[in-house]
Design a protein that fits this description.
Length: about 500
Amino acid sequence: MEQPADPRARRLFGGSARALGDLAASPFRADRDRIVGSPFFARLNGVTQVISPGGSGLLVHNRLTHSLKVAQVARAVAERLTADPAHRDLLEKLGGCDPDVVEAAALAHDLGHPPFGHLGERVLDRLARQRLGLADGFEGNAQSYRIVTSTEIRGAATTGLDLTAAVRAAMLKYPWTRLDHPDPHPRHLDPAPRGAAGPPDDPESGSAKFGAYRTELDDLRQAREPFAGRIPDWQQTPEASIMDTADDIAYAIHDVEDFYRVGVLQQGAVAAELSAWQRECGHFRAITSSALAAAGRRPGAAIERLRRQLHRKDAWIADDEAFAAAVEHVREELVEGLLALPFDGSIEAEQYVARFSARWSTRFVDAITVTPEPDVRSGYVLLAKPQWHEVQVLKFVHHRFVLARPDLALHQRGQARLLGTLVEALWEWLLDPEEESRLPRRLHDLVELAEAELHPRTPDRIGRARGRAIVDFVAQLTDGQAVAMLDALSGRSGALWTDAFVL
């Protein structure tokens, strides 16, 4: 198939006929259809967003519903910005902004997330680097990029979803590899872009967040070619910046909504924290960092730590007046509004939650603008200062009153142990010479793919290929499939002929 003249519409492999996906008039709309029609997208219905839906019924978001909401917000932002001549002209100079590209990238941005949400991502990264010897480890964004470029096996071809350059570039929240691209690597900038810095205790391990493994580096370069000379190598495209901002907005709103629904987010605790800081903000600002740390769980101390963290990490936008106004607005909307009455499942309660979400979504979408010279820790598309602070406070509420709970930690430690045991069991299976012919076909294919990607003189080429194949295989499971597979490998399952669904 002849490549289009527009370099943004170029595909990796020229684009083969893909049923509904190629009936769309726009190549970017075709990308959206390819993503939605893929098994990778359907899998997200069984993958945790924050807590497993199995423990909370249908009340919480999973990765699929999260992706749909991110796409909804992202498209609304793109349409609003491109309708404004001033924003549209600047976006064109920066490489373009198409609502179909933004929506497609938003739908695809979480395809690589493994079972059990961000916990699974951290566990797989540790196992990949420390147990399986993979320098790139595991990263959910890089895994998403790997999926759309190389891991959908069709006979001898490994063409992924064959998306256009613009959509692949828009998926790259972090357009660098873990260690060495681009050169100089953005983790060496001061300050470094968001996600580019390595962990303080292990700076040599490379960036904490990155958009592609080295095996997909050529694909990343091709995707970014149309933007060369327009934006720095380490900076997001405008479309990626919209997707990233929309992800933050959706996360901030629907996680608060989720934990209100299931009764975890309690008015009293949130009110005590926000109100105490408002009453004593002068005292909190005056005390030393060691005194603040010693304050422990004293109401108001945690949000003061957030204020200081914002100044430390994001001095380019952190502002005390905007922060205080954000605390007040969240207190009014959340403490005196949404949390004032417990969620009882009634139609009235559902409508109240819907109005809360719609009100915040509109507020954030309307506050997004485009800047020609963003700070290193920002993108070309960003929230206005007041709303940026409000997002930080909403995310703080979620982190402080949900993620820090001991009962959630107990649940997640069990999931972490499960993933570790599953990876070990699959590794032992791959090393068993008598079982080679009975390996799951998908795992066998992924070993072949990973081996073909590595240079023939790569040290321990077979071992590294097996390690990457195990990571790819586990990352493509749903929460339920991961649990079922470990049950089967541990001899706990009695459903012999129905366990095949996890293979």
